[in-house]
Write a structure and sequence with these properties.
single chain, 192 residues, Rossmann fold, 9 helices
Amino acid sequence: MSSMSAKSSILVVEDEEIIRTSLCKLLSREGYEVRDARHVDDALKQYRLNDFSMIISDLRLPGVNGTELIQLAGDVPVLIMTSYASLRSAVDTMRMGAVDYIAKPYDHGEMITAVKRILEKCDKPAANDSNPPATDSKPAEPHEELSLEDYFTRFVMEHQDSMSETELAKKLGISRKCLWQRRQKLGIARGS
């Protein structure tokens, strides 16, 4: 268990109790401090969002969509998960400022890898951490305009060395054949 996971706190916002409970247990076993809420209003009533190192939220929630948390959370990174995965919804979610997008049902290893990558990249310690983050690092622009092709290319290039073709296709919400066809069309060779 890394020292980062021991200090990082994560808010899970998910309306399906079995998924929320399962994800909280998974993250707790990895050493993260985890809190949960059933929907956005519940999260806002119970917690200060900027007290968390990151937020994991379902896309479709009762009342307000999980993407609303992206704006409400300020600098806190938000990972969106959904049962309705598609390349279009992934692009739209990333354009809104989500740091990542995971299709449900998610693989436990994939979720933990994504959480670790996000926390290391953002390097946002918990609110009660006495070491403030470096001020010279600038977060990525959350509203960057990406076309489907740009998003696809960026995603594949960033993840092809750490994910299998099946995992890449699943994450993008497309078939392996479609992944292969898009690689051919865009001239993206398989990484080493």
